[in-house]
From TrEMBL:
An MF annotation (GO) of this entry: dipeptidyl-peptidase activity
Top-level lineage group: Bacteria
Pfam families hit by this protein: Peptidase_S15 (PF02129), PepX_C (PF08530)
SMART domains: PepX_C
Matches recorded under NCBIfam families: CocE_NonD
Keywords for the protein's UniProt record, in alphabetical order: Hydrolase
Stated name of the protein: CocE/NonD family hydrolase
Xaa-Pro dipeptidyl-peptidase C-terminal domain residues: 295-541
UniProt source species: Gimesia benthica
Length: 546
């Protein structure tokens, strides 16, 4: 979603040059009317021939005029579909006021619904509509499903999300104002984005405002088959997995039992599902032909082809293992009827001297200190999650703590949701805690798999803020992320804890005052403690596969 696209240039200021598409596909710009008279900018890719054809639709705020996007839309159309790519209200050339995703949802304006029904009525349309898209285009599909347009038949989502508060704007309770300022670039009127940001920051807690953008409250209204692709090296994997679980078990009759989930060793994106990921080169079996699978899915549901996709396993997931080590376990696909799979939740305790062990600490009073200085934060570079890469450049900084197991004498598999339970104290009213999990190779490389942040004021939930008293010990518990990883014999498992990591995580001023769009002049240096004693034992809860 926003995380990888905020810096898209305003390409709508000049029209893209003509392209010649294969199979006689033609491209046409249209303005699609909404129920309130506003028109959305869309591009149609129309196959050669007489039609009518089923229609595939994607909604996004990012530019639709990049060469790669246009060629992929035309390639889809070459399989005898009309493809419609449409920009959100207020973005690019679309009319109206930019309000992010809000007018795609179930309020007075339902732009996704209106686009689907407009497409169904066109003379070149069979009236059967499927939707696709990744990230922002995944969110849009979840919102669309709740509105139940009559002609929506099926969906295909990649690296998706459900709740903009939890998975977008306030991840772990931590805001990212500098990142979202970059959304000016996608807006038809840049000032609309700043106005929307002011609205967001007037609702720092998960309240009714954010409930209105939370699909997890409306699974019962989702009523179409959906194929969902997730990526292990992507914090939004939580949205992909929750989308599958919610639709499969709580959806309408056409949703329950008609979902597919496919999770691989990839980064966030669409056509990057290949075996070269960050620093890692997985076997060839990690390559995934996204286009072929999308067409297979749509051919079945929109054209009635008997290609047996409906009897494929409900869930297929890639168990990651060590790379470059012949005979290492893992790096294989598994199939299962549902998710999550049975595991034994196993505590790994943080210990003094940077140890990580399944044995509970015995020391009566033990802790490790770290400093959170908002003006001199520790560094986590980049705007996208730096997974599948060596994390030592982060771990070797002064105020980054590492807790590492002894060398493993046998392989250990974690498959499922990893949770953190930190016992902490601080000199400040508020501060952040970042937890990361890495696979440490015998040569010292620490390959990052998952990480997550939690703002201490939201340690008891996002509905209200609770500030800390100096010296008091509090439990900060949160989900770190999903994974399926076999840590090979001879490797080590590492948990990293820090309180700053900029620019990836924008620093907390630590004052306990309301978070503002512009960074405040007043900040506090927080002196934090991670406790690991017998009575106050910080730990990771790992999903160990028996």
């Amino acid at each position: 979603m926003i995380l990888c696209l905020v810096f898209c240039p305003a390409l709508f200021a000049q029209e893209a040059p003509p392209l010649k598409f294969e199979k006689g596909v033609t491209e046409k710009h249209v303005m699609i009317p909404m129920r309130d008279g506003v028109k959305l900018s869309a591009y149609l890719y129309i196959p050669q021939g007489k039609g009518p054809w089923p229609v595939l639709m994607e909604q996004r705020y990012a530019s639709l005029r990049g060469k790669g996007s246009r060629l992929s839309f035309a390639e889809m159309a070459g399989h005898d579909y009309v493809v419609c790519a449409v920009n959100y209200r207020g973005s690019q050339q679309s009319e109206g006021t930019w309000v992010g995703y809000r007018d795609l949802q179930w309020g007075e304006k339902q732009d996704g619904y209106d686009v689907v029904e407009w497409l169904a009525k066109q003379p070149w349309s069979t009236g059967k509509i499927g939707t696709f898209g990744s990230s922002q285009g995944g969110y849009a599909q979840n919102y669309l499903a709740v509105t139940q347009p009559p002609h929506l038949v099926c969906q295909f989502m990649i690296d998706t999300g459900l709740s903009l508060y939890h998975e977008g704007y306030f991840i772990g309770g931590a805001a990212k104002p500098n990142r979202f300022k970059g959304m000016d670039a996608v807006c038809r009127v840049a000032a609309h984005n700043r106005a929307l940001m002011e609205e967001w920051f007037s609702h720092p807690d998960y309240d009714e405002y954010w409930q209105a953008e939370d699909c997890t409250l409306h699974f019962d209204k989702m009523n179409v088959p959906c194929f969902t692709v997730g990526s292990w090296y992507d914090f939004m994997c939580v949205g992909s997995i929750q989308s599958y679980i919610g639709r499969q078990h709580k959806g309408g009759p056409n949703s329950r039992g008609h979902q597919k989930l496919y999770i691989g060793p990839w980064l966030h994106g669409r056509f990057n599902k290949v075996n070269k990921v960050g620093d890692m080169l997985y076997p060839e079996n990690a390559n995934f032909d996204m286009m072929a699978e999308m067409i297979r899915w749509f051919d079945h549901y929109l054209k009635g082809k008997r290609n047996e996709i409906e009897i494929d396993p409900n869930v297929r997931y890639y168990v990651m293992g060590a790379v470059g080590e012949p005979g290492a376990p893992g790096n294989v696909w598994r199939a299962t009827n549902d998710w999550p799979v049975p595991v034994e939740e196993t505590p790994y305790y943080l210990q003094q001297d940077g140890k990580l062990s399944t044995s509970k600490p015995t020391a009566a009073d033990s802790f490790t200190e770290l400093i959170a200085d908002p003006l001199n934060p520790e560094k986590i570079e980049g705007r996208g999650f730096p997974g599948a890469r060596d994390a030592r450049v982060v771990e070797e900084q002064e105020n980054v703590l590492t807790f590492t197991t002894d060398t493993l004498t046998e392989a250990v598999e974690w498959t499922g949701n990893v949770k953190a339970e930190l016992l902490v104290s601080s000199s400040a009213k508020d501060t952040d805690f970042i937890v990361r999990v890495s696979d440490v190779y015998p040569d010292g490389r620490s390959i990052l798999i998952i990480d997550m942040i939690r703002r201490a004021r939201y340690r008891d939930g996002f509905e209200q803020q609770k500030f800390m008293e100096p010296g008091e010990v509090y439990k900060v518990g949160f989900n770190v992320g999903w994974l399926s990883q076999i840590f090979n014999k001879g490797h080590k498992i590492r948990v990293t804890v820090c309180s700053t990591g900029a620019p990836f995580y924008e620093p907390n001023p630590n004052t306990g005052e309301p978070i503002t769009i512009e960074f405040p002049e007043k900040v506090v240096v927080a002196k934090n403690k991670i406790h690991h004693s017998s009575g106050q034992a910080s730990r990771i809860l790992a999903p160990v596969k028996p």
